[in-house]
Amino acid sequence: MNLKNFPYDISITIAVLALAAVALPLLHPSGYVVTVLSLIGMYAIALKGLDFVTGYAGEVSVGHAALFGLGAYAAGWMNLHAGLPLALAFPLALGTGALAAWLISFPLLRVNGPFLVLTTFAFGRIVYVFLSQTTEVTGGQSGMQLEPQTLFGVSLGAWHFYYLILACLALALWTAQRIVQSRTGRAFEALRDSPIATDCMGIGTAGHKQLAFVLSGAFGGLAGLLYVYSQGVLFPDTFGFETSLMFLMAALFGGKKSSTGCLLGAAFVVVFPDVLGSHFAFRSFAIGTLAVLAAVGALRLRRRGPAGLKAMAVPLAFALGLVALAYGVEDLNEYRLAIYGAIVLMVVSYLGNGIIGLLPAYVPGHKSVAPEAGSGIRRAAPAKQEPLLEVRDVTMAFGGFQAMSEVSFSVQSGTVMGLIGPNGAGKSTTMNVLTALYHPTAGSVLFDGVPLADVGTTRIATLGISRTFQNLQVFGDLSVLDNVLAGMHHTIDAGSNARAMALLGTVGLAGQAHALAKNLSYGQQRFLEIARALATNPRLLLLDEPAAGLRGADLAALKQLIGEIRGHGIAIVLIEHHMDVVMELSDHITVLNFGQVLARGSAQQIQCNRAVQDAYLGA
Ligand code: ADP
Ligand code: MG
Q1: Contact (Cβ atoms closer than 8 angstroms) between residue 527 and residue 550
Q2: Cα 263 to Cα 40: distance, rounded to the nearest angstrom
């Protein structure tokens, strides 16, 4: 399920907020309920911030509580020492969170995967030590206590803060929704699914990753401000590693990329410690969980037989374990971390989309956008000088091994150059050099007179070079349409949807526009990559084995498509093993072997070349 398209998400969120705003005062709840709901509201803001990083950009942070804490302490410090009004605390807390996140994003950009998680952990520890040890600034372990607050002369109580939090929550969720539905949100998801394609489409992985962290910092800072003002006291332990883990767990538990998920996750974080604190509540929770899972198990047994029940064995054992804990253990708080850990394991293994993913999946009706007239392919701007592409004596060495040695060739606008050769000859390496993913050890590449040496991968697309990948690099969790729109990142406007639909029609994928890209067949994904590459308005298109895995009608369609692209004045470098495709379409062919140019010439010359026959074509 694509949660971005989860149709009830925003409706549920609005309903919950409206209920919280209007119905609650009528119920005359206790101060405890108001406090709990206030906490849920501010945690939901912090979680929405974390969602930019985890849900959208796909990174795992175990230091989010530090951003929350920095916002809280900045606002608290300002209140105590600077004596400035409450309103000024907003820019300060948001700014502190954002600034800290921006600073930590630099080391984060240098690492990936487990090392990135470790970096966020280190950041969290540093902030925790700062908060707990710099006693003169933060009050250290004895904490920070604020005076009662006033705004415009009115002294503020729990209800005032409750409404302040609700208003901030509504604004935060609305802002987040605006961002994730914009091209920026699409960029976050693109970099999550394929950093390399994100860079090659000119979107830029690094900048957007940084932006996701900065947004998470600003949201965390805002939540921190609301925390300090509504609670009145701060202790460093509130912002330690355990809280960061709780945030992460809540994000998983509620569900990624969803406002409802944030509310659910926040409710879980706030309420669950109280559940653990009361035997009655925890027993109810354990028995309730067991009852629900048993019901699901029974249903599956009826529908799918013993196999259906078998898949439920572990969750059922987990629920039984909870019941055993609930009745067998005196002080549950001592088992707190183990229980959290077990819940995380369960959620990760069995609820990939969180609680929100349990709601009935339903593919919403999409407004169908009419494609613009024509193919959607734009005519290439004419080259200032021919040849458009000139590769001069390029050597690309990895350690002592030369994947390319002194390779030279050139490509004219509106022509196809076939680049062929046995596996490992250096063809894909050539493409990586042409998209500045690799910087040649020696030699130079000129694109319309511009040396690529000074150009980064992200600028390649704006220059007019676009590509597809031998190892498919579609943005899997984006829709097919969004994949093409991602290619228009820098030129996006009101007409982009119509043009994207035209491009999808041209590659034969109009009917799949709203499917997730990962659900397409490999062949369809190859065509999607071509449409996405065309969306950037290239003057040079690099196709790395576009026919791999294609058969029959698809091959014919591909040949026709490449011809049509050439007809728009676009130069094409075509790497391909299907010799009929290469020989039919190529105006020129360059043959690589062991990183060296073995031969150049027309299709006919290459077919007759003895050296090429020996090395590659065979008899
Ligand atoms: P192909 O012609 O099949 O596309 P490649 O260009 O992918 O060949 O690879 C050419 C050679 O360069 C291979 O031996 C490959 O292992 C090596 N190679 C490619 N990229 C790297 C890299 N980043 N580091 C080390 N070796 C590489
Ligand atoms: Mg290759």
Answers
A1: no
A2: 7
Q: What is the pLDDT of residues 405-438, one digit of tens each?
A: 999 999 999 999 999 999 999 999 999 999 999 9
- Could you identify the residue written with the tokens 């228009």? 488
593 Cα to the center of ligand 2, angstroms: 12
Fold of 389-617: Rossmann fold (3.40.50)
Mean pLDDT of 472-482: 95
- Where does the pLDDT of residue 23 fall: very low under 50, low under 70, confident under 90, or very high at 90 and above? confident
What atom of ligand 1 comes closest to residue 592's alpha carbon? 2
pLDDT, tens only, 245-296: 889 989 988 888 999 999 999 999 888 888 888 889 899 999 999 998 899 8
Surrounding residues of ion ligand 2, Cβ less than 5 A: 427-428, 470
Beta carbons of 477 and 193 less than 8 angstroms apart = yes
Q: How far is the CA of 398 from the centre of ligand 1 (A)?
A: 9
Please report, for the chain, the start and end positions of each structural domain, with discontinuous segments joined by +.
Answer: 8-16+51-271, 280-358, 389-617
Nearest in space to 251 (alpha carbons), one of 511, 51, 458 = 51
| Confidence bin at 6 (pLDDT 50/70/90) | low
The protein residue whose alpha carbon is closest to atom 23 in ligand 1 is 398
Residue among 559, 544, 534 at smallest CA distance from 379: 534
Helix (H) or strand (E) holding 284: helix 279-304
Residue 391 CA from chain centroid, whole number: 35
Q: Mean pLDDT across the stretch 606-617?
A: 87
DSSP 59-101: ---S-HHHHHHHHHHHHHHIIIII---HHHHHHHHHHHHHHHH
Dig out the tokens for 544 from the structure.
Answer: 């790395």
